[in-house]
Every structure is written in structure tokens, then in C-alpha cells.
Design goal:
Distance between the termini: 31 Å
CATH class: Mainly Alpha
Keywords: Coiled coil
Shape: globular
Structural class: mainly alpha
Largest sheet: 2 strands, antiparallel
Radius of gyration: 18 Å
Protein name: DUF1573 domain-containing protein
Bound molecules: zinc ion
CATH architecture: Orthogonal Bundle
Order of helices and strands: HHEHEHH
CATH topology: Helix Hairpins
Number of domains: 1
Helix content: 55-70%
Number of strands: 2
Strand content: under 5%
Number of helices: 5
Length: 138
């Protein structure tokens, strides 16, 4: 499969996901429910990540002040730490993925409510990243 056909498939998956979300969202149709559900699942993602550290132990976090003493942004990107040691086990990975999936559901719901294409959002962000590269400063 060529790189271009992969991109097209990914775009179609995003559109299909947004359409399916619009078909099944009933109980939390109000924008008030959607934005508070987004907050809830953001917290649940963070909680699942922290439980991977404190309950499971498959990953640990060892954080300290970042050192911004490099000449270029490329050097800086390579030198900065993510502060995570280890790798997620299968159980923790599945739990975090499930929470992220629910988050994506409500993000797509918010897009539907406001008439925004999730695919367009991702494409615009991707184009910004391609244009600005490391200068996007994210
Ligand atoms: Zn784990």
C-alpha cells in the first residue's frame, strides 16, 4: 500500500467515525453534556495513566527540571525528557486506549454539534505542523 492510499483511508476512517458518532449519540446530545463529558474523559485518561504508575507499576515517572541549553530547536527536541520510564503493559494500554476512544467520541460529538469536520481539523493541524515543523513550538 502506498503512502497516499494510507492517508486517504485514514481520512475516510475519521469521517466514518464522526458520522457513526452522530448516529449513536442520544443520551448526551446537549452541548452541555458533550463539553462536560470531554472534561470527564480527559480526567479519566489522566487517571488511567497515573494508575499505570501507582497501581500497576509498568511505567514510572521520574521528573526534573528540563534543560533548555541547546543551540537549535532540533537539538532541544532531542535532549528534552518525557520523564516516563518503562512501557505500558497490555492491560494499562487497553484501559488508556478505551478512555482515549471515549474522549474521541465526545470530541467528534462536539464537532457534529458545531458543524465542524474532524477530518478538516486534523488536516489543518497536520498542515500547520508540516509548515512550521519544530517552530510550531508545541
Ligand atoms: Zn500496567
Amino acid at each position: 500500500m502506498s503512502r497516499n492510499s494510507e492517508s486517504i483511508d485514514e481520512n475516510m476512517i475519521c469521517s466514518e467515525f464522526q458520522e457513526k458518532v452522530s448516529e449513536v449519540l442520544i443520551r448526551h446530545k446537549s452541548i452541555l453534556d458533550i463539553v462536560t463529558k470531554l472534561d470527564e474523559y480527559n480526567a479519566r485518561i489522566n487517571r488511567a495513566v497515573m494508575k499505570s504508575v501507582t497501581s500497576c507499576g509498568c511505567i514510572s515517572i521520574e521528573a526534573s527540571k528540563q534543560k533548555y541549553n541547546k543551540e537549535t530547536l532540533e537539538e532541544l527536541r532531542e535532549s528534552l525528557e518525557n520523564h516516563v520510564n518503562g512501557e505500558l503493559c497490555e492491560v494499562c494500554s487497553e484501559k488508556i486506549e478505551a478512555e482515549m476512544g471515549a474522549y474521541a467520541f465526545y470530541l467528534a460529538s462536539l464537532c457534529n454539534t458545531l458543524g465542524i469536520s474532524l477530518t478538516d481539523v486534523i488536516i489543518k493541524e497536520l498542515n500547520n505542523l508540516k509548515t512550521l515543523g519544530v517552530y510550531s513550538l508545541k
